[in-house]
Amino acid sequence: MPALTRLLHSYLDLLWHYDPAAASAAGVASADGALGRFDAESMRQHLAAFRAVAAAVEELEVEALEDEIDRTALLDAIRTTIARIEYERPHARDPGFWLEHLGQALAALVLREEAEAALAGAALERIKAIPAFLEAGRATLRHPPAPLTDRGLALLGPVGEVLVYAAARFGGVAPGGPEAVETATGSALGAMRRYGTALRDEMEPDPDPRAAALGEQRFERRLHHQHALREGAAELWRAAQRERESLDAQLAAEAADLAPGRDWRELAAELGREPAGDPLAALRDAVERAARGAEAAGIVPAIDAPLEVAALPAPVAALGRDPAYLAHAPGRAARLLIGAGLAERAALPVAVREGVPGRHLHEAFRAAAVSEIRRLLHAPAMSEGWALYAEQLADEAELWDSPGQRLLSLARRAEAVARLALGVGLHARGIAPSEGAALFSEWTGQDGSAAAAAVRRTLAHPGEGVAAEAGRRELVRLRRESGVGMERPGALREFHEAVLSRGGLAPGLVGWSMGLG
Predict the structure, then answer these.
(1) Less CB within 10 Å around the terminal CB: N or C of the chain?
(2) 3-state DSSP: the chain helix, strand, coil percent, rounded to 5?
(3) What gap in Å lies between CA 154 and CA 282, rounded to an integer?
(4) CA-to-CA separations, 232 to 77, 413, 445, 463, 492, in angstroms, rounded
(5) What's the average model confidence in pLDDT over 375-387?
């Protein structure tokens, strides 16, 4: 095994030890019964271990260009993890960090396809571990910023619902029977109530409304390491303003064609509330139509990789994971899970984004990439950026087949631009959370509660909201530099295949590998 691959496995072993919820979601079963250890001493140990691996990667000598690109991708991933622990310190500043980990740990087991009996023991162990886990959270948190405290309080209900759902799902076959699960669940729910009481009544919040922001320098480091972006915060802020103006004009024109005199925000909200009669059937049909349309247009390579559409449990959907794409595992097809609220006209845009030509196409190529680093790591700017770029492709190829679909897709892109602006504004430009919420509402038309939730999540996950639009912009830049467009579908397909064959590399590293930029 090459030295670089060994270091990749060392990093992943440490990552799965640090974050057992992520390990379960990735299909790594060895830590299925555990929760993470995020107390101060454990975090010091995690940090020292990640630093040691980073030093080994830095010292490794490689000769081939592609190996240097892979080493950069691995080092960027490790540095992002280190910065998260050392500087952002969510374990000490974000009450929602602990609840989010708990919710993800339980949801990962609920969404796995193994029989209940195979996972019930691990589920029971995780439920039993909740009281001690949340007590460690109460002891570790120090002066959390008010928006992050609000985020923790908002997560209590959804995480509690996932807990109750998991107990019902696995209780009949767990060791010790339903009584053991019921007892453990009662203790866990009591611990969650005590945690909520501590957040409301006992923890003194940081009075600075901007306390959760990273600051421009650290935010730009995250942009560089997590997303391999060349642009800094100032350039991204200006780009978001320009893209907003362009999308606003397109959305206004689309709304004028559909319903003259109506504001596009109002119309998009109305169309988004019209539910599909049978959401699963609507999405299955849309997934097939999207793939056929992309194949007929000849702009992306074909794949032989089935995508199953299934229902997403309501408690998991409430955690904000609707829809949920689960990559294929050995012997199993990839799955696209949706909740009950899919709008009729949103089915095709969702299928484009999550199926072919979107995320599913990228994931199929990632699974076949030439190196383990490109197969096992996946930069958010690539995975989220490609999904958003796929909707742009569908628009250019005129794949929409009924009124309203284009408007909903453009509204989704406008939301991605707003999230980019929100991330830059909150973390690098000093805007207050209230200003961020007002910006998000103005740019998307979403109500105050949705805007407040977007602000809280952006503060808790500094690089997350940037990924989709920043990644799409990088992909558009690479395409422009390659000199191909819709007028040459064969050349465009070859360009897309070259990009996709680089697997999980960030678009900036893809461009390096392709000799662009």
Answers:
(1) N
(2) 70, 5, 25
(3) 32
(4) 19, 21, 27, 13, 29
(5) 97
